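#help-structures
NK: newbie question, is this the right format to request a structure? protein is Peptidyl-tRNA hydrolase
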Amino acid sequence: MDAPWLVVGLGNPGTRYAGNRHNVGAMVVAELTRQASSTLRQHKKAQAWAAEVRLGTGPGGVPGPRAVVAQPSTYMNVSGGPVAGLAAFYKVPLEQVVVVHDELDIDFGTVRLKRGGGEGGHNGLRSITQSLGSKDYLRVRLGIGRPPGRQDPADYVLSDFPARERVDVELLVGDGADAVLDLVQHGLEATQQRYHSR
């Protein structure tokens, strides 16, 4: 049987962090779970909340690819253990591991995709690279923009999106979820062409 995809949305656990910019990846996984009419549950082997779903629908209404959507139940900077644990449990090959995360160096509201590359100071990605032993997993990068003025980037990512950006955040989360669906159904290059030409 073909291996499922693994889609992990990064964030910090608990209500205190739920609305943070740093949690926008987790918001996308919550949206994918909602679209699949499923519920994230504590995984029995990995430190994560996870659900086995079908992502979207294919031609003729056929259910989309099998996937495990997940959020680590650990803090962001130790996301690697949960991701590696889920990948091992479900026998997901590296090329089908998708990490959805916030990105300071992309304009707010923009979605970009790539395979591999550096971590750009993102401790969640650094942890995942160490635990998987490779950088060559897929990334869906959600632009949150740079902090204004001299605000510390660490304070910026751990602050909530302001009320005036709420509608734009909903659009970003929706676009992020759509990008994941496109990625698993149509591949990286086709999805990059769609989102990077906007």
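mod (FA): yep, format's fine, and the tokens are attached above. The chain has one domain: 5-196.
NK: thank you!
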